[in-house]
Amino acid sequence: MPYSIELRFDRPLCERMLELRRGVSGLGIAPGLLDGLGEPHLSLAVYDDEGALEPEALVRIVDRLAAQEWTIAIAFPSIGLFPTAESVLFLAPVVAPKLLQLHRQYHALAANLGVRCRPYCLPGRWVPHCTLARLLPTAETLDAIEHLWRNWQPLLGTLRTVAVIRAEPGELLHERRLEGAR
User: Fold this and answer.
1) Euclidean distance between CA atoms 130 and 132, whole angstroms
2) What is the structure's pLDDT at 3?
3) E strands in 16-59
4) What DSSP designation does 72 have?
5) Assuming Cys at both sites, which of 35, 49, 59, 118 could form a disulfide with 174, CB separation 3.0 to 4.6 Å?
């Protein structure tokens, strides 16, 4: 069972993102393909080695990270697609220096965990994104992109919390408000 560390958004931004997901879902996309995405978020890290990983260690790291001063406005001016077997359709944020600093700081705090996170989450390889849909067949991906394009408005908000998630079944283990978040 993987664990993830997620950055979560202010409520109005989160609701707008959920509205976009519902719009994609309303296109008649195969049932179940949008399930399991959880609350809209940016993943800072994902860990597969749960046998050696103590969730309490992740909670301590998250608490240390959140206790630092983080006031981060975030904008999502575009959509994107990872054209892989998972076919991930996502919202793409502006990759601001403070967002990268928070990401690097998390990984510095987690350096002695004794387990490695998935390589695509590491500093220098991380592509921050908020997943709207995944595992879509090509035709449905194109329909979803067209729907988003026709209904697009840039999204603005703030990062509010950092959370520890047991990825399957999507269980929230711990969530802490970022110090300085409004």
Assistant:
1) 6
2) 92
3) 41-47
4) -
5) 59
Q: Which pLDDT does position 47 carry in this prediction?
A: 93
Tell me which H or E stretch contains 142: helix 138-150
Q: How many residues are given for the chain?
A: 182
Task: Tell me: pLDDT of 30 over 70.
Answer: no
Tracing tokens 């999204």 back to the chain, one arrives at 155
Give 31-45 pLDDT, tens digit per residue. Answer: 555 556 688 999 999
Whole-prediction pTM: 0.91
Quick check: 108 and 127 in contact, CB under 8 A? no
Q: Give the H/E segment covering residue 15.
A: helix 11-25
User: Left if phi > 0, otherwise alpha if psi is -120 to 50, otherwise beta: which for 14?
Assistant: alpha
- For the record, the structure tokens of 63 come out as 């608490």
d(CA 93, CA 11): 17
> To 5 degrees, how large is the angle CA 119–CA 80–CA 158?
80
Task: Please tell me the number of Cα atoms within 13 Å of 179 on its side-chain side.
Answer: 9
Tokens of residue 162, six digits: 């950092």
